[in-house]
Amino acid sequence: MNKSIIILLLILTIVSCQKKEKNKPIAEQTKTEKDTTKTYRVVNYYYDNDKDIREEYEVYVSKEKDTFWNQVRYFKNGILDNSRSKHYVLKISGKKTDSFLKGTIRFYSPADSVPDSKIHSRNVIFTYLQEVNDSLIHEEIRTDKNIIEFDYKNYGNLSFEGHISDLRFIKIDSTPEKLNLNRNYFAIDTEVWTNNTFVELLK
């Protein structure tokens, strides 16, 4: 076989192997110590499709190695594309000494691109753990918006656990008497190791 052909084949093989290695999902390493008292660990993976596109995934992993996919962020040329992503942004402001903190959560999904004229109805339920009289209760807010503001009484060193259920009933032009149901669920957390009971709802 011609020596130049052999060299070309070797180069193609090396390039092919490099592409495969690049396209493997990679887990980000966290520096937090392992907490065996917690049920879940939050792991973030990223996946580079090519030099311009990157996908980032947030996954809950249980002690039994069960996985629950929670968030995905899609980047093109380093810019987050919310129209193709499913994720939330949580902000809690205030000091530990404050009686109540101010919270804001905003969430995104591809369903946000559906025109309002196509939405028959929408039900958003935001649930979170709240301390009241030394007991933990489930506080609930119902809305039809992507942005929710709430009061939050700090417990557990500013930790936060919650859940969002977003159900949209979408009209079908060809069959007006029927509706498509679009569902999006998020477990909300501020810790890497967690006992968040809402994770099971991601199934």
Automatic annotation (TrEMBL):
Query: Per its UniProt entry, which superkingdom is the organism in?
Result: Bacteria
The protein's name is Lipoprotein
Upper lineage is:
Bacteria, Pseudomonadati, Bacteroidota, Flavobacteriia, Flavobacteriales
